[in-house]
Hints:
- By secondary structure, the protein is an alpha/beta fold.
- The protein has 2 domains: 3-188, Flavin prenyltransferase-like (Rossmann fold, 3-Layer(aba) Sandwich); 197-404, Rossmann fold, CATH 3.40.50.10300.
- It has 15 helices and 22 strands.
- The protein has helices at residues 3-6, 34-43, 54-59, 62-69, 82-87, 104-111, 118-126, 140-143, 146-157, 177-188, 222-233, 260-273, 315-321, 338-352, 388-404, and strands at 20-25, 47-52, 96-102, 132-136, 138-139, 161-162, 166-168, 171-173, 197-202, 207-208, 214-215, 237-243, 254-257, 278-281, 288-290, 308-310, 326-333, 356-361, 369-370, 372-376, 380-382, 386-387.
- The strands form 6 sheets. It has an 8-stranded mixed beta sheet with strand order 13-12-9-14-17-18-20-21, sandwiched between helices. Strands 2-1-3-4-6 form a 5-stranded parallel beta sheet, sandwiched between helices. A 3-stranded antiparallel beta sheet has the order 5-8-7.
- Bound molecules: flavin mononucleotide.
- Residues 26-30, 53, 55-56, 59, 103-106, 117, 137-138, 142 line the site of flavin mononucleotide.
Amino acid sequence: xxxxxxxxxxxxxxxxxxxxxxxxxxxxxxxxxxxxxxxxxxxxxxxxxxxxxxxxxxxxxxxxxxxxxxxxxxxxxxxxxxxxxxxxxxxxxxxxxxxxxxxxxxxxxxxxxxxxxxxxxxxxxxxxxxxxxxxxxxxxxxxxxxxxxxxxxxxxxxxxxxxxxxxxxxxxxxxxxxxxxxxxxxxxxxxxxxxxxxxxxxxxxxxxxxxxxxxxxxxxxxxxxxxxxxxxxxxxxxxxxxxxxxxxxxxxxxxxxxxxxxxxxxxxxxxxxxxxxxxxxxxxxxxxxxxxxxxxxxxxxxxxxxxxxxxxxxxxxxxxxxxxxxxxxxxxxxxxxxxxxxxxxxxxxxxxxxxxxxxxxxxxxxxxxxxxxxxxxxxxxxxxxxxxxxxxxxxxxxxxxxxxx
Length: 405
Ligand SMILES: Cc1cc2nc3c(=O)[nH]c(=O)nc-3n(C[C@H](O)[C@H](O)[C@H](O)COP(=O)(O)O)c2cc1C
């Protein structure tokens, strides 16, 4: 591995370690994104091989992709039969062909089995036996072409997965790099949670004082989002109930709520209509709300006294609605000694019948890292400080261990 590639290799996660990805680049202007995309895939541990159509080479020079990937770039099919080397049926083949940014031309050729560019030849070679993902990018009138549309539908029927596009400024723009990386990880991840249905809450609720002012807390939603995304990577069917203003997430099934009342309503609706195997309550739900919120904006300049009342304890409802679900709660307290934090967690186990409580100090709010103590019904495990993504992996390993006995 080249030194400058080694410097970024798996620095963000190990999710794609051991995965070989063919980045097949057609001639869309969005090819300028491919340097960053390749580097981002490498940051998650992937080995990336670029293949470029003749038209892509008019937009970005192959040197840029050589630099980005640290590997030779396929710009033509030669006597080395590069298409077979990358996408033929043998032990060194790639794990995925990602066509990005896919032109109307390349999409339609793939749909018709035509292969007359390095990109389409690699795709044709891969089609019957390897996963293929396509991220389209084109002017919106090209995307609206009925034949292009039909070709996309045909490819979907044949098992090709599409990522995006995003519709902006009259264009069907290529999906964001973050979304593409998310979808690639989801595609290639091992699926040890397949068959499990999981409900996760994330973020800080808001309780209104008047129509524009509210009481909230410092939770960013990062921990809950990391937990939900990790479960989706592992193949679980995930519902993420996320508060307005939390960090964004690419989890497919999301419900946005704002207040405790809305969160409770959304949870009750989910638990009434589907059986969930695991419920993770990672949202920082407000303990109080304003007793009589003003219907119009409160005038400034005068002292204001607010009367607060306790909100319903959402976590206490979970086992009433689904006694068999594995319930994971969070407990965050300031200025408590470790033993006190553990005893608070145990109280939650008693009261809400949680199966696992993740206890932390409030220092983690908004941060990318967290340091927690896992408190189970008959065990206590202290974990070292780590990134919230890594912690999400550990939490699911722990839950899977307990569920499977
Ligand atoms: C600067 C430039 C930008 C282009 N951007 C797009 C695009 O975003 N989407 C698209 O479908 N075609 C785009 N085209 C047209 C394609 O390059 C053209 O359809 C070509 O035949 C695609 O060949 P390929 O799919 O083999 O790379 C662009 C052309 C140029 C010169």
